[in-house]
Write a structure and sequence with these properties.
This protein is of the alpha+beta class. Helices cover 42% and strands 22% of the residues. The radius of gyration is 26 Å and the shape is elongated.
């Protein structure tokens, strides 16, 4: 009988402990209400071979960038177009420039219209390793956001 009473008492104590408020509930509210960090960040937009069109997936990345910058002031966005090593160097330079311009236009449509843009093209520079192998994932434009507190 005493074993049953002990088990019942322990069970009741555990149930009451489960109803107590968690010690982290107050700290969670502080985490959720902190102001944005407003730190610089980078995103990349990828393209199909010989393409400059910003895809639906790329627009989703730009929308995510807008969310990351929410509550902050975007001072500047540096857009650098890149190309892989396939083809002539001058063609790749033109392609990377067109990618940078295309991404800049998409940024404007995504809500970054008041931002100062610095647009650059790297062509296929750096698209091969010192051993001559092609560097993967070079068909892209990198966007570097300079962000500050409002």
């Amino acid at each position: 009988m005493t074993i049953k009473m002990t088990v019942a008492t322990l069970g009741a104590g555990l149930m009451l402990a489960g109803c107590a408020s968690a010690p982290w509930s107050a700290s969670r509210a502080a985490i959720e209400t902190q102001p944005p960090a407003c730190a610089d960040f980078q995103v990349s937009i990828y393209f199909e071979r010989d393409e400059v069109k910003v895809t639906r997936e790329a627009r989703s990345v730009l929308n995510s960038a807008r969310t990351m910058a929410r509550g902050c002031k975007v001072e500047k966005a540096r857009v650098v177009g890149l190309a892989d090593a396939v083809g002539a160097a001058d063609v790749n330079m033109d392609l990377s420039r067109a990618r940078a311009v295309s991404v800049t236009k998409a940024l404007t449509r995504a809500g970054f219209g008041q931002v100062e843009f610095d647009v650059a093209a790297a062509g296929d520079i750096g698209a091969t390793t010192t051993a001559g192998a092609s560097a993967p994932l070079r068909r892209r434009a990198d966007i570097f956001f300079d962000v500050s507190k409002p």
